[in-house]
Amino acid sequence: MVEIRVAVADSTRALGLINRLGRIFQPSSVSFDGPRKEVCVRSEWESRSVVEVLSTVEAWLAAEGPPSATLWVGDRSYTMVGPAGPETLSGHAA
User: Fold this and answer.
1) Phi, psi for residue 17 in degrees, rounded to 5
2) What is the pLDDT of residue 88?
3) How far is CA 40 from CA 30, 71, 84, 86, in A?
4) Within 10 Å of residue 33's Cβ, how many Cβ atoms?
5) Chain-centre distance of CA 85, in angstroms?
6) How many whole angstroms separate alpha carbon 40 and alpha carbon 43?
7) What residue ranges do the domains of the chain occupy?
């Protein structure tokens, strides 16, 4: 089992990401932690699941307009930058 967390600076935009992820994963696998402002996905540990989350976050950044999002997969964090910023995905240990 893997938990992927996505920090959302503006919690009003979290619903869009939750809806997108809910189309891919079972609704019980997707949740929002309001105090931490994080969307969480719990899934079996498969590369396909991680890639689907990354693709969904990328589409959400393009559609909803946040400049970036930080994701955690295990003990590593990644910052994805939306289309308004440089097209990079950088990773570093948390």
Assistant:
1) -70, -40
2) 44
3) 6, 10, 25, 25
4) 13
5) 17
6) 10
7) 2-93
Q: Tell me what pLDDT residue 47 has.
A: 61
Distance CA 45, CA 59 (A): 22
pTM of the predicted structure, to 2 decimals: 0.76
**Cα 26 from chain centre:** 15
The whole-angstrom separation of Cα 12 and Cα 54 is 20
Distance CA 15, CA 9 (A): 13
**Which parts of the chain have pLDDT scores under 70?**
46-47, 84-94
The CATH-assigned architecture of domain 2-93 is: 2-Layer Sandwich (3.30)
Q: How far apart are CA 55 and CA 6, in angstroms?
A: 13
Question: For residue 72, what are the contacts with CB-CB under 8 A and spacing of at least 6?
Answer: 3, 4, 5, 78, 94
- Measured distance CA(19)–CA(27) in Å, rounded: 9
